[in-house]
Amino acid sequence: MPIQTIKNDTRDLLKEADKKVALAERRLAEGTPAEKVQAAGDLSVLKRHRAELAARLDELDKAKDGALPTLAERLKEEGMLLRQALENFSIHH
Questions:
Q1: pLDDT digits (tens, 9 = 90+) for 36-91
Q2: pTM for the structure as a whole
């Protein structure tokens, strides 16, 4: 897969994560006590995975050509972790 495609897919995934984080933040602020507990846990997981993926994307953007394949692979792995976290979030909400 071309590096630019990976970057574009990652940016789309980060946008999706931002939407889910906003939803979890609303539930944390406005939900029932049980929803607030769930939202707090979800926020922690989503924000952590989102931050890690954004950091990998930044590394890839700054990388020299020789490091691109390794960094692209790490980016894909972080992306899979964020996708799993988003799927788990969707299951609970």
A1: 999 999 999 999 999 999 999 999 999 888 888 899 999 999 999 999 999 998 88
A2: 0.89
- Structural contact between residues 81 and 49, judged by C-beta atoms closer than 8 angstroms: yes
Find the Cα–Cα–Cα–Cα dihedral 81, 87, 88, 93, rounded to 10°: 150
Assess contact for 28 and 36: CB atoms under 8 A: yes
12 dihedral zone (left: phi>0; alpha: psi -120 to 50; beta): alpha
Q: What share of the chain is helix, strand, coil (3-state, %, to 5)?
A: 90, 0, 10
